[in-house]
């Protein structure tokens, strides 16, 4: 039996996961959440695969290294762990949150792989890190879905280098990734982006065709 992972961070992560469930952004076992424990060498705590996000506990969080190997806790890391690692390495994120909300699922159909979704003119954009005006234009890149995130991680890292100012990205018909320097910053970003996606989605109404 391995030692439990960083207890305070694991407890905070479990709380953020339950919040995302309660808001309808991570129903069932969907979504996954991580936070950086140390930078050199890179260590992350991340939700185990297949756990119910509404009942998430610190015991369902494992600590992994930069290759996704489990160092502490019991369970298998999420299948998307390689994306969390890529985002922590490329964007310097301290925490990464991934939701499967209704609105991110719908709006991610806006473009094929390589396209994106523009969000502009909304006051709530000012809740994003470093954004001071509603005139900001947020570009969320959209990438194609896959079941092999280990193979896709370098492509995601390349996209993050191409769009260093972005606060998140969408996976087509799948969900949203966002991050922050800290877990509380990442939580603010997910709240803001999910709000904006819902506002845009509702505005389009039911007549919109992808
Ligand atoms: Zn996912």
Notes on the protein architecture:
This protein is of the alpha+beta class and 210 residues long. It contains five helices and nine strands, in the order H-E-E-E-E-H-E-H-E-E-H-E-E-H. It has helices at residues 7-22, 81-90, 102-107, 149-162, 183-204; strands at residues 32-38, 43-47, 61-65, 70-72, 95-99, 116-120, 137-143, 168-171, 175-180. It has a nine-stranded mixed β-sheet, with helices on both faces. Strand 3 (61-65) and strand 4 form a beta hairpin. Helix 2 (81-90) packs parallel to helix 4 (149-162). The structure holds zinc ion. Zinc ion is lined by residues 80, 98, 100, 174-175.
Largest sheet: 9 strands, mixed
Instruction: Provide a count of the helices.
Output: 5
Model regions low in confidence, pLDDT < 50 over at least 5 residues: none
By secondary-structure content and strand pairing, the structural class works out as alpha+beta
Order of helices and strands: HEEEEHEHEEHEEH
Query: How much of the sequence is in beta strands?
Result: 15-25%
Taking all Cα atoms into account, the compactness measure Rg is 16 Å
What integer is the average pLDDT? 93
Helical proportion, percent range: 25-40%
Measure the end-to-end span. Answer: 49 Å
Q: What's the overall geometry? A: globular
Oligomer: single chain
Strand runs, count: 9
Bound molecules: zinc ion
Strand order of the largest sheet: 4-3-2-1-5-9-8-7-6
Task: Give the SSE layout.
Blueprint: H1 7-22, E1 32-38, E2 43-47, E3 61-65, E4 70-72, H2 81-90, E5 95-99, H3 102-107, E6 116-120, E7 137-143, H4 149-162, E8 168-171, E9 175-180, H5 183-204
Parallel strand pairs: 7-8
Antiparallel strand pairs: 1-2, 1-5, 2-3, 3-4, 5-9, 6-7, 8-9
């Amino acid at each position: 039996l391995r030692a439990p992972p960083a207890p305070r961070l694991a407890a905070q992560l479990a709380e953020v996961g339950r919040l995302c469930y309660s808001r309808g952004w991570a129903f069932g076992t969907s979504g996954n959440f991580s936070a950086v424990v140390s930078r050199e060498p890179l260590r992350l705590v991340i939700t185990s695969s297949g756990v119910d996000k509404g009942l998430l506990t610190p015991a369902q969080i494992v600590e992994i290294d930069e290759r996704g190997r489990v160092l502490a806790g019991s369970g298998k890391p999420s299948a998307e762990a390689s994306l969390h690692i890529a985002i922590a390495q490329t964007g310097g994120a301290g925490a990464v949150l991934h939701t499967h909300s209704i609105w991110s699922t719908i709006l991610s159909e806006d473009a094929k792989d390589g396209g994106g979704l523009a969000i502009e003119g909304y006051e709530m954009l000012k809740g994003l890190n470093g954004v001071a005006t509603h005139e900001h234009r947020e570009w969320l890149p959209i990438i194609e879905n896959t079941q092999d995130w280990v193979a896709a991680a370098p492509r995601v890292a390349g996209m993050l280098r191409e769009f260093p100012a972005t606060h998140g990205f969408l996976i087509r018909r799948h969900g949203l990734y966002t991050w922050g320097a800290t877990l509380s910053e990442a939580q603010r970003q997910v709240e803001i982006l999910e709000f904006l996606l819902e506002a845009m989605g509702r505005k389009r109404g039911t007549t919109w065709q992808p």
